[in-house]
């Protein structure tokens, strides 16, 4: 429970209070990232369901997206923009890391952010026209699987940034493979629960495959360009996985 609260405190803007703190907690709390993701997705799903009763699907979709962004403080969106600003052009590793630290946003980052928001809003608008239970399930899965993909990248790569200036140093240290195993266990429990309430296994497996592909591609990109992961790279992984999972849920196959 303590590690779950640490994960909730780290990934959201919710006012979580903890007595004391140990750096190892932040490293180990990644095993519960899918649970926090599921909670964020569920909150977005609740907004989508409520808003769809009063407004057209696209307005409900934007409100649901705004709710998830508000809950996380745009944490992952910031990482997406910084990653594409740094790696969108052909620059050296050191230059890329310097760009990631720059608070200003460039054309690559702005394009990635706008396209990500537009695509997610469009996908949620499609879901809002379908049975609402399926739409909420898609949101829950997309957020849970997306954060698990980030954990997978973390476990499989060394830290590629400047360790001395890392904002969350415990996460820049080696993350034990068992934490990925536990995160995957949470995803399996979530999938089994949703399947039991009517979500097709085919959709869930397609979503898992989409998340795995994005994690694998991001791992290769970050390793090739930076020699490892950064916090911004993990944020970009989360955002791109969300999109991939929502695409899997909305595909007409």
UniProtKB/TrEMBL annotation:
Residue spans crossing the bilayer: 35-55, 105-128, 134-159, 171-195, 201-218
Membrane topology reported for the UniProt record: Multi-pass membrane protein
Protein EC: 2.7.8.26
Catalytic activity: alpha-ribazole + adenosylcob(III)inamide-GDP = adenosylcob(III)alamin + GMP + H(+); alpha-ribazole 5'-phosphate + adenosylcob(III)inamide-GDP = adenosylcob(III)alamin 5'-phosphate + GMP + H(+)
Protein name, entry field: Adenosylcobinamide-GDP ribazoletransferase
Enzyme kind, highest EC tier: transferase
NCBIfam families per UniProt: cobS (TIGR00317)
Molecular function terms, GO-annotated: adenosylcobinamide-GDP ribazoletransferase activity
Function field: Joins adenosylcobinamide-GDP and alpha-ribazole to generate adenosylcobalamin (Ado-cobalamin). Also synthesizes adenosylcobalamin 5'-phosphate from adenosylcobinamide-GDP and alpha-ribazole 5'-phosphate.
Subcellular location: Cell membrane
Gene of this entry: cobS
